[in-house]
Amino acid sequence: MRTMTTWGGLGVGVTLVVAACSGTSVNSAGDLNEHGGAGGSGATGGSTVVPTAGRNSGGSSGSTNGAGNGGTIATAGTNGDRGGDAGAPATGGTGGDVEPTGDGGQAGDESVVECETCSVIATGDIRGLAASGEAIYWVDFGTKDTLGNYNEDGKLNVIAKPTGVAAQTVASGLHEPQALSLTANYAYIFAGEVGTGATRGIVRVPLAGGAAESLQTLPNASFTSYRVFATTPGYVYWTWGGAVYRIADTSGATMETFIAARGVTHIVGSTSVLYFEDATGIFSDDPATGTPVSFSAAGQSIDSVLTNLTIQFADSDYLYAIEEPATSQGGHVYLSRAAPVDGAWKRVAPSPQVDPGLDSTWDQLSVLGVNYFLDPIGPSGTSAIYQGALNASSNQLFSLPSYRGKVAAWTLSSSWLYVAAEGRLYEQLLTHLQ
Predict the structure, then answer these.
(1) E-assigned strands of 7-77?
(2) In sequence order, which residues have a C-beta less than 8 Å from that of residue 136 and are 6 or more positions away?
(3) pLDDT tens for residues 115-159?
(4) Enclosing domain of residue 82
(5) Which of 38, 103, 270, 296 could form a disulfide with 90 if both were Cys (CB 3.0 to 4.6 A apart)?
(6) Is residue 93 in some structural domain?
(7) Is 376 inside any structural domain?
(8) Is 389 a domain residue?
């Protein structure tokens, strides 16, 4: 069973418009203002597929079977605000329905997902994704009431492809699920939000069904990412507060400290060892002995340039990392890898230039055969997922133009790319694998 795991970010709260997608669409054109609503002072009709009611300075939408409020013909929206639908002049008062006459506009801070061959397969506050075979699992954070109190209604869901087409709930009543890792037997979940006094912990849920099992309540510690999990055969690991913990992937197992606190910043599992990184360098650690062995120093001189490496992914043959020039050095960003037999780092692909002429780093890397996938974010905030062949320039696969924030999570199965963004879960068939 091939398991691909992805850790999610915090998520963002910007309205999403799906453009030029095949398959399932979110809303048909004009359905939000089907029963009237006057144009406001927002932007006029544009090329968007889904016109919606205005926001802030935009016009209001009419309620079902209700009359729209009086207004003027929509004009150009203010910078950063979404405009209302272009409409015929309303005669005001409580008169009859006012039908929209054109597509809605879009301006300023709207985010757009562009994907010519994607479909929406689920919605919700999706924070973490993982694939097992062709089944896709995700955690839904849940909801809060009008006062901001959490409703304790987080869920673990699955679509059991290739036979399943509808989402099924594996576990409910989860506390603030944020990130997800899968094994053959369990889903491991990071639970808890950022914030002073927040309760955070690690739980696991049997994939066959059953109650969630609390593994550890995490002590207070600062952190910037929910990317905390790694696996080796038979074990699941997580890092917190500079230490590494683990548990055997069996019923009745207990959590243990695998690496005492030493400033560990990243962990990556392979088919045989756990790799970890701290301020002194990169190390491998055999699960059977628990003895760290130096893999490479913190800084490397590659092509006569002093570089810093951040580990991201491992398989049976290589450890992969982002290679960045040291602060005081010039140079570029690369995807690099090293074989365990010698630990010598070699560049295998340049950084995608999301912004022309500017290298980008990325949050996540996955390798599928000779194909690699990564999610660079350019200095302007433009985000995308790129696919490329090792030793070749990358090719853009799933584009997310500039908006405030980034995708919540993404992952791969052997045939599909899954992306959670702006409250929707997208799937895209991988058709360009080499």
Answers:
(1) 16-19
(2) 121, 129, 130, 158, 159, 161, 411, 413, 416, 418, 425, 427
(3) 777 888 999 999 999 999 889 999 999 999 999 999 999 999 999
(4) 29-114
(5) 38
(6) yes
(7) yes
(8) yes
